[in-house]
Design goal:
By secondary structure, the protein is α/β, with parallel strands linked by helices. Helices cover 44% and strands 16% of the residues. It contains 6 helices and 5 strands, in the order βαβααβαβαβα. A 5-stranded parallel β-sheet has the order 3-2-1-4-5, with helices on both faces. Strand 4, helix 5 and strand 5 form a beta-alpha-beta unit. The protein is elongated and about 70 Å long. The mean pLDDT is 87.
Amino acid sequence: MVRVMATGVFDIIHLGHLHYLEESKRLGDELVVVVATDTTVRKRKHEPVTPEKMRLELVQSLKPVDEAVLGREGGDIFEIVRELKPDIITIGYDQPFDERNLEDELAKRGLSVNVVRMPHLDHDLDGTRKIINKIVEFHEMHKRLVEVEKK
């Protein structure tokens, strides 16, 4: 049995997330997804739109996902790897990790895990920031139209 571990924020679920998880699942028999905590998201990316418990529940409901767990706060980022014991860790095309460095760090801790960078599958709205920007643009356009109609 090959266990694959995928990680991410998963804030405003979109096709990029789904394809990342589908491709990750294809690499093994079981897919466990680690969803970043709100604190981690704030430190590394942005203020999350969707709270961690909701993101966790949404990710757990996705077809390719066998299990979803909330990430750990602070401390050793490799602790969850030790707990979940994956054979493969997949990282998204935009995640700021170097595959070889990650494998080396895992090996130093006695963890034999392959790290695979997943490909970028280009879509119009394949990122949370892209979705938010499109909503903001739509809102601004709507405001301008309302102002024109008032005149």
